[in-house]
TrEMBL record:
It comes from the Bacteria. It comes from Paraburkholderia sejongensis. This is Uncharacterized protein.
């Protein structure tokens, strides 16, 4: 299993990656500021998993979402709250060509599976504790 990344480590990695990221790359053909179904045009061989937001000691993370200020799951400005769904089920992946970071997980329903991806923006990461 990939190394668990807490919110502090995630912010550090995201800031470093944003400073190093090349202006353009094959991975940036489709804007991924908000959640998207992974584009078929994205070359998966460029992506390397560098960590996970799913803690080993939590076999069933919450499905609660953190969406303040009328943001929605699909919003490009929705906060990235690692303890909340869907982030708590994400792997953190890096483009080996340009150094950009992405969050990825598989959305599964009764009759479908959808690989979802979102660019990791350090400015949107919020370390929000779960209620209770």
């Amino acid at each position: 299993m990939a190394q668990y990344l807490n919110a502090g480590t995630l912010i550090e990695l995201a800031r470093a990656a944003q400073q190093r990221a090349a202006a353009s790359c094959e991975c940036t053909r489709t804007p991924l500021d908000g959640w998207q179904s992974q584009p078929l045009s994205m070359d998966e061989t460029l992506l390397v998993e560098i960590g996970t937001l799913m803690p080993e000691d939590e076999p069933e993370p919450t499905y609660s979402e953190y969406l303040p200020d009328k943001t929605t799951y699909w919003s490009s400005d929705a906060p990235i709250a690692p303890r909340y769904f869907p982030y708590n089920r994400c792997g953190v992946w890096q483009c080996s060509s340009c150094a950009r970071l992405y969050l990825r997980y598989v959305e599964g329903g009764g009759y479908f599976v959808d690989r979802r991806i979102r660019a990791l923006n350090a400015d949107l990461i919020e370390d929000v504790p779960l209620p209770g």
